[in-house]
Amino acid sequence: MTNPSPDLAALREAILCGDPSRAMPALVGLREVPVEQAVPLLLLGLEQSMFMVRSLSCAGLGVKQNEAGWQALVVAMQGDEDANVRAEAANSLVSHSLERAWPLLRDGFAADQQWLVRCSILSALAEQPAIDPAWLLELASMAITDADGTVRVGGAEILARLVREQGAAEARVLLQQLQADPDHRVVAAALNGLQS
């Protein structure tokens, strides 16, 4: 028995209704819808006032991929007022294309001071097995100068990976410097990395 195809008009109405308890299940329901029908509805979700709806729309655009979705994610990452939405947009850009997303995420990391966005960018890129080690080093070097300890920990963990997987001398030097960090979590991550 095949599933009946989703009612696009009903999904659209739920996304536009202003009630997240109806809009969010409708957005999740777009998983069953082909890209060309799903993306316009996800773009509508990005225009809604509730940040949870916009964030879930970004996540959907990471799965249902086309050029219109890519462009909308770039706009959301660079300009949405809510850090959750910007963070989810960054994640979804990496899902589209690591190579294409890298310069945008590097610039986004430098420009966006919000720790949630920065941590999201760090983890989205660090999870990519094929990422250029030089990109990771550049990103980690920025992260370890952040005012937020959580972001510095993320940078230290990336440096540790570079030491472990690449034997990167520059990453090791940076980890050694982090042993004097005022945040004990950063020091622990640095010591961990130096033992690899």
Automatic annotation (TrEMBL):
InterPro entries: ARM-like, ARM-type_fold. Gene3D superfamilies: Leucine-rich Repeat Variant (1.25.10.10). One of its GO terms (cellular component) is phycobilisome. Pfam families: HEAT_2. It comes from the Bacteria. Keywords: Antenna complex, Capsid protein, Phycobilisome, Virion. This is Spore coat protein CotB.
